Amino acid sequence: MPGAANILVTTARTFHGVGPRVALQGRRYLGVSRRWSAFATAGGSLVIGNYQNTDTRLTQDSTQAYESQQVGGTLLVPNLDLSLGGSWQMGPRTSFSCGWMLMYWGELGYAETINTLATPVGSPVTSVVLTNSSLSLDGVFFRLTHNF
Fold first, then answer.
1. pLDDT band at 62 (very low <50, low <70, confident <90, very high)
2. Which terminus of the chain has a smaller tally of CB atoms within 10 A, N or C?
3. How does pLDDT run across 84-93, given as a tens digit for each residue?
4. How far apart are CA 69 and CA 56, in angstroms?
């Protein structure tokens, strides 16, 4: 029926890209046997690629119609990662590390707000485009490494 709320709104996003990466790591070995170490790592990259975003809405009217909107283009995404921590060389080929890390991706394109309220039948999926969205991840990490 006209003006009825949507039953289901889905968003599918894809991004495929490549780009250069540069990273540095510093490590200071500690102790007589040099089994302990402290490290700091920093890296950055620029990823260029194509994205596509598809919003699909199933309406609650008598036709149960699917309405869709697609947006796509090219993005240049800067990436930065940092980590600080320590390692213990448990054996000749096994080590345990822990520390703190931060990963950041910027300029991911747009974020959107989809209107799921009542809309007239046949109207397109409504969204508000926002620019400069970003994503970050940070926290403690634990890593067990065995080289063979």
1. low
2. C
3. 999 999 999 9
4. 7
Q: For residue 116, is it left (φ>0), alpha (ψ between -120 and 50) or beta?
A: alpha
pLDDT at res. 46:
95
- Predicted confidence at residue 1, as pLDDT, reads 44
Phi-psi group of 103: left, alpha or beta (phi > 0 → left; psi -120 to 50 → alpha; rest → beta): beta
pTM beyond cutoff 0.85 = no
Contact 25, 37 (CB under 8 A): no
Q: Three-state DSSP class for 20?
A: coil
d(CA 106, CA 132): 7
> SS3 for 103?
strand
Q: How far apart are the first and last CA of the chain?
A: 65
Residue 125: is it exposed, middle or buried by C-beta count within 10 angstroms (0-12/13-18/19+)? buried
